[in-house]
């Protein structure tokens, strides 16, 4: 049995010829990866029609003014009603926070939104609905089929790069130009 390379804390950068339009020019932060599958969140796809005050209203939370108009992102096509918060490591939920990288945590429990609403949450946040999921071996197959490039996940790429520039930024972080990408996978 082949051991799975752990991609937790890495990014998946969609290749230009990605067959699935939901992932066109997407950058996905892999939050968990094992022989049982993988889970990640798209970090460059704001919903465009939902902001944090909309979610706060549905959850009966009163938000501080500086958080109300923050965008909500499409984390992926799986369980679109399920929420996640990517955040800086200055915050840990009393219930459950997953360490994604040395600088980024993931909390999927309501307490993080309550803490944000009260001004006690993490300094940097990204609120997402839904996630990307792969069954055993599925992600590895997609990588072998040249659907994704694997890259690092610097804090600034996730939290400080404008959404429309994250795909190019993820490529540049790996010293790759979009002009040099090919849809044909090479094999040695």
Q: How would you summarize this macromolecular structure in one to three sentences?
A:
This protein has 188 residues and is α+β, with helices and mostly antiparallel strands.
- Helix/strand-derived category reads alpha+beta
Amount of helix: 10-25%
Number of helices: 6
> Which stretches are low in confidence, meaning pLDDT under 50 for 5 or more residues running?
none
The biggest sheet, with number of strands, parallel, antiparallel or mixed sense and barrel status, is: 10 strands, mixed
What is the 3D shape? Answer: globular
Average pLDDT number: 87
Radius of gyration, in angstroms, nearest whole number: 17 Å
Tell me the β content.
25-35%
User: Termini separation (Å)?
Assistant: 22 Å
Number of strands: 10
Please write the string of helix (H) and strand (E) elements.
EEEEHHEEEEHEHEHH
Features:
single chain; alpha+beta; 6 helices
Structure, described:
This protein is α+β, with helices and mostly antiparallel strands. It has helices at residues 52-58, 65-68, 110-117, 138-144, 155-159, 166-173, and strands at residues 11-14, 27-34, 37-42, 46-51, 71-74, 78-88, 98-99, 104-107, 125-134, 148-151. The mean pLDDT is 87. Strands 1, 2, 3, 4, 5, 6, 7, 8, 9 and 10 form a ten-stranded mixed β-sheet that branches. 21% of the residues lie in helices and 31% in strands. The chain is built from six helices and ten strands. The chain is globular. The longest helix is centred in the middle third of the chain and has 8 residues, at 110-117.
């Amino acid at each position: 049995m082949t051991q799975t390379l752990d991609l937790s804390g890495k990014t998946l950068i969609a290749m230009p010829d990605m067959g699935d339009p939901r992932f066109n020019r997407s950058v996905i932060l892999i939050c968990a990866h094992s022989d049982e599958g993988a889970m990640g969140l798209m970090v460059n796809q704001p919903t465009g029609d939902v902001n944090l005050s909309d979610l706060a209203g549905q959850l009966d939370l009163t938000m501080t003014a500086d958080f109300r108009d923050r965008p909500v992102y499409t984390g992926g096509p799986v369980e679109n009603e399920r929420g996640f918060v990517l955040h800086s490591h200055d915050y840990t939920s009393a219930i459950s926070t997953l360490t994604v990288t040395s600088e980024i945590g993931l909390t999927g429990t309501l307490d993080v939104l309550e803490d944000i609403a009260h001004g006690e949450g993490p300094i940097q946040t990204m609120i997402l609905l839904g996630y990307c999921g792969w069954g055993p071996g599925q992600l590895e197959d997609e990588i072998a089929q040249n659907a994704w490039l694997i890259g690092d996940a610097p804090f600034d790429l996730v939290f400080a790069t404008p959404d429309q520039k994250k795909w190019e930024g993820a490529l540049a972080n790996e010293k790759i130009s979009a002009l040099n990408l090919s849809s044909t996978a090479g094999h040695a």
